[in-house]
Amino acid sequence: MNPTREKLTLETQRALRLRRENPKSSHQQVTCFTSGTSFDYASTRFVYMSDHLHKGEAQLVTKAISRMLGEGSAGVLVSLMALPESESGSLRVGSRLLAIESGERVGTLGAAELDEEVARQVDQFLSSREEAKSIKVGEFAANLAELARVQLLFERIEAEPRLVIAGAGHVGASLARLASLVGYRVTLIDDRAEFVSRELFGSPSEQGIDLVLAENWSDAVRQAIATGRRVSVAIVTRGHKQDEDCLRAAISRNPFYIGMIGSRRRTNIVLDKLREEGAYEEQLKKVRAPIGLDIAAVSPEEVALAILAEIVAERRGGSGASLSSWRRP
């Protein structure tokens, strides 16, 4: 496995500070990764050079990152890392452009034609699910021959992934604890007060788990999912009725991932019920039921691991297959 080191740039650190100072959005976090040893020098130089940027320009990028996170959007921070000595003019090392998935752009790399070509790469980079990528302009913009050797760093910036868990029994509680450790912002829902008591989640690593006592399953799930952007939903309740209510609410929000625990028979009963009610087949086909990867899990903790493994694989674009399968033809 290639080493991956999380590294916050100066601008994303400032964005984090702004988010913490805003009580309405204090839960938002930003992740900006630099992957592999080949980026170490470039990233250090990038952070160093950022102090030489015009203060007003840097503040605009910082505020835009903060706003973007508050809206639940994702974007790409593109930084000019290396400039051949032959280059001059408006380009400078440390310049940056924030390109948001909505199409909005903040900042500049110093040349309008370069900004345009970079903006065209944003959707492709976000869909690739890479966290960071070092690339020369000539690799994606053959028409900019004079800038071919300019080195850029693409970095994904988005809020931490969210996981909504409906059901705080043994599996749900184990899943909440594990997902929180992995870096998900977790909301755990149940209609039994004793199952979402803070006393059950008292360790430092569990303080970030949002505990919700549901008076109505459907309302609680819909509210927790909100817009559904980059949200995974795990339905692990204690019965058919609760499953139906939660799944009905979940598919109405169209989250990134929906999974439901249970045997094939139990999950088919719930899916058939929603189908009879008029749920679109395309929506039901997206539901992972039974939830999780097949690791022959037995204990609640093992089941939680199987569920989270599937959620992470879906988010990262993994296959869920054994990495050593090539050894066994």
What does this structure look like?
The protein is of the alpha/beta class and 329 residues long. The protein folds into 2 domains: 4-159, no CATH class; 162-316, 3-Layer(aba) Sandwich (Rossmann fold). Helix content is 38%, strand content 20%. The chain has helices spanning 10-21, 40-49, 55-70, 112-119, 122-128, 170-182, 217-225, 240-253, 264-276, 281-285, 300-316; strands spanning 4-6, 30-31, 33-35, 74-82, 96-100, 105-108, 132-136, 151-159, 162-166, 185-190, 210-213, 231-235, 257-260, 287-288. The strands form 3 sheets. Strands 2, 4, 5, 6, 7 and 8 form a 6-stranded antiparallel sheet that branches. It is elongated and about 65 Å long. Residues 1-11, 15-21 and 23-53 have low confidence and may be disordered.
General shape: elongated
Estimate nothing, just give the exact number of structural domains: 2
Mean pLDDT: 82
Indicate the proportion of strand residues: 15-25%
Structural class of the secondary structure composition?
A: alpha/beta
Q: Give the strand tally.
A: 14
